[in-house]
Specification:
Layout lengths: L1 E2 L27 H13 L2 E5 L6 H10 L10 E5 L9 H8 L2 E2 L6 H9 L4 E6 L5 H14 L3 E6 L9 E5 L5 H15 L8 H12 L4 H9 L6 H7 L3 H4 L14 H10 L3 H10 L8 H8 L9 H10 L4 E5 L2 E5 L2 H13 L3 H22 L5 H24 L4 H10 L1 H6 L3 H12 L3 E2 L5 E2 L10 H20 L3 H18 L2 H17 L3 H18 L4 H16 L3 H18 L3 H16 L3 H17 L3 H17 L3 H18 L7 H18 L1 H12 L3 H12 L38
Parallel strand pairs: 2-6, 2-7, 3-5, 5-6
Antiparallel strand pairs: 1-4, 8-9, 10-11
Helix pairs in contact: 3-4, 4-5, 6-7, 6-8, 7-9, 12-14, 12-15, 13-16, 16-17, 17-18, 18-20, 18-21, 20-21, 21-22, 21-23, 22-23, 23-24, 23-25, 24-25, 25-26, 25-27, 26-27, 27-28, 27-29, 28-29, 28-33, 29-30, 29-31, 30-31, 30-32, 31-32
Length: about 750
């Protein structure tokens, strides 16, 4: 047996022996991954780089191997390309050929490899083995056992499952690195190409739309001969047709995006292809239970999903992720788009989207019920994680004939998320769309608004009524009073006509809320008391009902009746604690903190406001947070720290810009704010007050909340700043609990 020289097409003078070709263009990004792979190769002898097609595994592994220290592989780095090998028995011959070995004896080719490698120290890059897993696993296992100086970097879409293997999943590029890659390849086509201004924005958008897959980015850059980045973006919905090309020296599977993803598809068993197609109905991430329900049946039993999903994970078709102890899965958009094409070609797309809709309708229903429980935080996190899928379900309902009523139900059922977790603007979008559509019933009748004879479709009418009162509620919190009043009036009229006592109570409640924020306090009190009586009559008890009680307390406090306001909120506090409810509790504590401030019990007021801030921050409820911040500024002033009060008011001012109309434009809500500002200016002077307020406006949201809470834990000293004596009578005007989560277009936090 003899060892031949390296192939002549490899440039002379490589950093070490082997057959790695010189890189023809610049390698971009992945500094952290390169360091991690180097460390893995130092401590282990087999590292398998896995990832979806087009993620750049081959280039990355070759680049990393070329950087391996000479001490680790004095006999060089050798690359074996297996993509074109179809028969398992040819793997050993291909490896021998890559190493430059010839042998005329009767020895088996595996023995030839073992004898050659036994005393050598080198790195072997085994690229493209996924269609030959068993043969490669057996060979590598034997070679590693016989050659202690051998290290292997395997490159494929699934692990080899060999003892001692370290799996190295390779993620797509960061958006910044993807944009740099795009610019570098574009400059080779268009000298002088620069990423600046609008061009940078367009390129980043293109890269994100392509999941920052290096192959897709390079193919997109190649289209700049005929398209601008903005035009590219417009055409990427058909990415598989658009992104063709690649160099002549590229492997066939790397010459178009479709064939790259199709290569993974070909390697899948029939059940794996079926699950891949069905999983394409998910948007964003999903969990195992959802996959089992939506994708199970008709050729793929639900109890087999976990095993088939495990295979798709192994082949990098599906990616596993974990957050807060929960395991979830996702597909890159490019992989999902390929699966969606297959799903539609099978004629099964509509059925799967209906199953997807059913699952998320059920999830929303469960979460609404569980919102009034100790699992409120879990519900908020679950809906946040499932938001892309809920959006997909809403879009399906509002575009599929005959399903508008389901869209109304789903949009209304998510009220707790729109109002409680800082998503008012998005909630308004879905609610407006749902109530603005005609409802087509199964018999072909169409209902736009209320028609008496249509109430035989009771569940449909109830869905619309719920969407109407939730729309009114959200519009109130956004400060959009005219549409709010219109939606609530329609809901009241239709609920009264149909005898729907539940919808009527909610409509009356939210109309009272509207009166409260528009300073019509006597009417607000009357409507809120009527609504609460209606809730008692029908046996309704949940966060909304308790919020109505807090809003009534607010109305009474604004009218000077602090005693009844405190009694109402004390009762709410007890019920919340009994049921583990925390979102409404924060608003009840806010009213109680206001009463403590009026009684000059500043320590208790601060303690309660700290709880309000913590809860509001946890739920991304920006309105609850900013209301607490405003009142805390006043309490801080009363404690003698006018400077810190000015900072907190500045921080609140910045938050209001995201919430909407500061203090709702209400005289009653604005009075405490005016009192705090007037006294702080008197104590500090106009210029120092303005400077401190501006410093507060510079604080990011998290910084502002942390600062406000830390002072209550004694982490900040309060300088003694004299201030004028407080008035004898309590100030009529303060923050509000329930009735105003987020204002003008606010994504309250989220």
């Amino acid at each position: 047996m003899r060892r031949t020289s390296r192939p002549t097409d490899v440039p002379a003078g490589p950093p070490q022996p082997g057959n790695l070709p010189h890189e023809l263009n610049r390698f971009i990004g992945r500094a952290a991954e390169l360091a991690a792979l180097a460390a893995a190769l130092e401590s282990g002898r087999l590292v398998t780089v896995t990832g979806v097609g087009g993620v750049g595994k081959s280039r990355f592994a070759a680049h990393a191997a070329a950087r391996a220290p000479r001490s680790l592989c004095p006999d060089g780095v050798w690359r074996v390309e297996l993509a074109t090998v179809r028969l398992p028995e040819l793997v050993e011959y291909t490896l021998a050929e890559a190493l430059g070995l010839t042998d005329h004896t009767t020895r088996a080719p595996r023995q030839v490899l073992v004898d050659h490698l036994a005393e050598r120290r080198l790195v072997l890059v085994l690229d493209g083995f996924e269609h030959l897993v068993d043969a490669c696993a057996s060979l590598i296992r034997d070679l590693l056992r016989a050659a202690p100086g051998l290290r292997v970097i395997a490159v494929g879409r699934r692990p080899l499952a060999v003892d001692g293997e370290r799996v190295f999943p390779l993620a797509p590029l960061t958006p910044a690195d993807a944009a740099e890659l795009f610019a570098d390849r574009a400059a080779s086509l268009l000298p002088g190409f620069r990423l600046d201004g609008r061009m940078l924005i367009d390129v980043l958008e293109v890269c994100r739309h392509l999941d920052c897959l290096p192959l897709a980015v390079e193919l997109a850059a190649g289209r700049l001969r005929v398209l601008s980045p903005a035009q590219l973006m417009e055409r990427l919905d058909d990415r598989f047709r658009l992104l063709r090309g690649g160099g002549r020296d590229a492997l066939p599977r790397h010459q178009t995006l479709r064939t790259t993803i199709g290569w993974s598809h070909e390697l899948c068993a029939p059940q794996e292809r079926l699950l891949w197609a069905r999983l394409s109905v998910f948007s964003g991430s999903f969990d195992l239970e959802a996959a089992e329900y939506v994708c199970g049946g008709e050729g793929l039993p639900a109890d087999e999903i976990v095993d088939v999903l495990d295979e798709l994970l192994a082949q990098s078709v599906v990616v596993r992720e974990e957050a807060r102890g929960e395991v979830r899965y996702r597909m890159l958009d490019t992989v999902r788009a390929y699966g969606a094409e297959w799903l539609d070609s099978m004629g099964d797309g509509r059925r799967m989207r209906r199953r997807h809709r059913d699952w998320y309708m059920g999830l929303a229903t469960w979460c609404e019920l569980d919102w009034f429980s100790p699992r409120q935080g879990e519900v908020a996190s679950r809906i946040e994680a499932e938001l892309p899928n809920l959006r997909a379900a809403l879009e399906h309902c509002l575009t599929e004939p005959g399903e508008t009523h389901l869209g109304q139900y789903l949009a209304g059922t998510l009220w707790f998320y729109w109002a409680g977790c800082g998503r008012l603007s998005e909630g308004r979008h879905w609610l407006d769309r749902s109530v603005g559509l005609d409802v087509e019933y199964d018999d072909g009748d169409v209902c736009s608004g209320f028609v008496e004879e249509d109430w035989e479709h009771g569940e449909y009418g109830a869905s619309r009524l719920k969407a109407l009162w939730v729309l009114g509620y959200v519009a109130i919190l956004q400060g959009d009073t005219v549409p709010a009043l219109a939606a609530l009036q329609e809901c009241r009229e239709e609920a009264d006509h149909s005898g729907d006592a539940t919808a009527l109570a909610y409509a009356v409640h939210r109309t009272g809320c509207l009166a409260l924020v528009t300073d019509d306090l006597p009417r607000a009190e009357d409507l809120l008391r009527t609504a609460l009586a209606g809730y008692r009559e029908i046996g309704e008890l949940n966060s909304n009902v308790l919020m109505g009680q807090v809003e009534l307390a607010m109305t009474l406090a604004f009218q000077g009746d602090l005693a009844e306001a405190v009694a109402l909120c004390t009762d709410v506090r007890q019920v919340c604690e009994d049921h583990g409810e925390r979102w409404t509790l924060a608003y009840a504590l806010y009213v109680l903190a206001y009463a403590r401030w009026a009684e000059a019990d500043y320590a208790q007021a601060r303690y309660m406001l700290g709880m309000c801030l913590a809860i509001g921050h946890e739920f991304h409820d920006l309105l609850g947070t900013v209301l607490s911040m405003e009142l805390l500024a006043l309490v801080t002033l009363e404690e003698g720290d006018a400077a810190e009060a000015a900072v907190l008011q500045g921080a609140a001012a910045r938050m209001w810009s995201s919430v909407g109309l500061p203090l709702f434009g209400s005289v009653h809500y604005n009075t405490p704010h005016e009192l705090c500002e007037t006294r702080a200016r008197q104590a500090l002077g106009d210029t120092p007050f303005a400077e401190l307020s501006r410093s507060g406006e510079q604080l990011e949201h998290d910084e502002a909340v942390t600062r406000a809470l830390s002072r209550g834990r004694g982490q900040r000293a309060a300088p003694a700043v004299p201030h004028p004596a407080r008035p004898a009578e309590p100030v009529r005007g303060k923050r509000e609990p329930a009735a105003s989560r987020t204002w003008k277009g606010g994504e309250a936090a989220g």
